[in-house]
Write a structure and sequence with these properties.
428 residues; 38% helix; 23% strand; globular; binds guanine; binds zinc ion
């Protein structure tokens, strides 16, 4: 069935950091959706049709749904764990919490909470790490399928340097990943990401298995972590003494390509940056996590200048907010500390089309273009008393976006549409 959605539409067709002709804004705009797709976008006056039911979201903004390119589904109860940097934080809080996902019934319950939280925060697609237990990925895919949400996820492969309860083996990681790929990759809107957690928790034998999966399933994404923390890097290089640098480990096992998402990518050597650019491997900026865990300051301008495509993400539960608005807020501040600027148009492009480009999926998600999936959100820049007071002085679209970026959170999300379906308020 067709529907018309009316509001102030904003969609990007280029990166505002590279060109002035980058977005389309329609003050009294309309989208037509049918069968989960956007079929038309334009002025309301041109698209209005008495035969098509309408939902009027004026005076709010309508944007493509946010895309979160790095998040840990089994860490919903790890967020806000005190006092540790990466390796201690993993050992003290995270691995014990992820071990709960072995228990019957836990993963399905957490998957529901996780997806409801994403939707409440305006995120319509996420790239998610699951726990090492295949039932965690099973539960997440099933919950995403029941909401018709486009999810990219994988069970983590990890066979050392963690408690027994979260370890797999090279063989079981391969077999379980393969079975999940065969069942879920390309089923409806679900896609699989081959997920070696990071070099510290995978033996060379397991990295070999990850490489084999990548060769067998070249269409899958690959996600892991790279150079987040100085102690992590030192330990990694002790474990792989032959490697030229951290990235070289992943290269040795054949993981580098434009399907690879490298979470954090903070403390990089020039050679690593050059190889990432040459191979198309993506860096993923996780601002709230990098501040919370004291990891370091991402060099967006440096990576961009070198030709590395970057995503931006929450990294819950090292990250502290599900909100891509809050993620852009902290991202702005990190780049300030580096003497770099994140313009609001660039920021909103990044969280939508930019992340879709990082995933190679901009033909399906991340814009309001006809033919793409009808995943979009309705934003209210006056959603709190403080925001509405500040909005009295906003004169331009860029100012309104910046208020959303700095002051906004889930309260600014009026509605989240997934494949044309309004998902809020959450009922389950
Ligand atoms: N490196 C390996 N595992 C993790 C994780 O769960 N979170 C973060 N932030 N870094 C990691
Ligand atoms: Zn992570």
């Amino acid at each position: 069935m067709k529907q018309l959605i009316r509001g102030r539409l904003l969609t990007f067709h280029a990166d505002p950091a590279t060109t002035d002709d980058n977005h389309r804004y329609i003050e009294d705009g309309a989208l037509i959706t049918e069968n989960g797709k956007i079929t038309a976008i334009g002025d309301y006056a041109d698209l209005a049709d008495p035969a098509i039911p309408e939902t009027d979201h004026r005076p709010h903004l309508i944007l493509p749904g946010f895309i979160d390119t790095h998040i840990h589904f089994p860490q919903v109860q790890v967020v806000a764990s005190w006092g540790a940097q990466l390796l201690d934080w993993l050992n003290t809080y995270t691995f014990p919490e992820e071990s709960r996902f072995a228990q019957q019934g836990h993963a399905p319950q957490m998957a529901n909470h996780f997806l409801n939280l994403l939707l409440a925060h305006g995120t319509t697609t996420a790239v998610a790490f699951c726990s090492s237990h295949p039932q965690s990925a099973e539960a997440l895919f099933a919950a995403a399928e029941s909401r018709n949400m486009a999810m990219i996820a994988g069970k983590v492969m990890m066979d050392r340097n963690a408690p027994e309860a979260v370890l797999d083996t090279p063989r079981s990681a391969y077999d379980d990943s393969r079975a999940l790929i065969e069942k879920w990759h390309g089923r409806g809107r679900q896609r699989y990401a081959i997920t070696p957690r990071f070099a510290i928790t995978s033996t060379p034998e397991q990295m070999q298995m990850a490489g084999q999966l990548v060769r067998e399933y070249p269409d899958c994404h690959i996600q892991t972590h790279l150079s987040e923390n100085r102690d992590e890097i030192a330990y990694t290089l002790e474990l792989y003494p032959q490697a030229r640098d951290y990235l070289d480990i992943y290269e040795t096992y054949g993981l580098l390509s434009d399907k690879l998402l490298l979470g954090h990518s903070i403390h990089l050597e020039p050679r690593e940056i050059a190889r990432m650019a040459e191979t198309g491997s993506r860096a993923v900026f996780c601002p709230t996590s990098n501040l919370f865990l004291g990891s370091g300051l991402f060099d967006e301008a440096g990576l961009r200048a070198a030709g590395v495509t970057c995503g931006i993400a929450t990294d819950i539960g090292g990250g502290t907010s599900y909100s891509m608005l809050q993620t852009l807020n902290e991202g702005y501040k990190i780049l300030q500390l580096r003497g770099q600027k994140l313009h609001p148009l660039t920021a909103f492009h990044w969280a939508t089309r930019g992340n879709a480009l990082a995933l190679g999926m901009a033909d399906r998600i991340g814009t309001l273009d006809p033919g793409t999936d009808a995943d979009f959100i309705v934003l209210n820049a006056g959603s709190t008393p403080a925001m509405s007071l500040r909005m009295e002085r906003a004169e331009t679209l860029a100012e309104e976006l910046f208020i959303l970026q700095i002051m906004g959170d889930d309260r600014a999300i009026v509605q989240t549409y997934v494949a044309g379906q309004a998902m809020l308020p959450i009922s389950s």
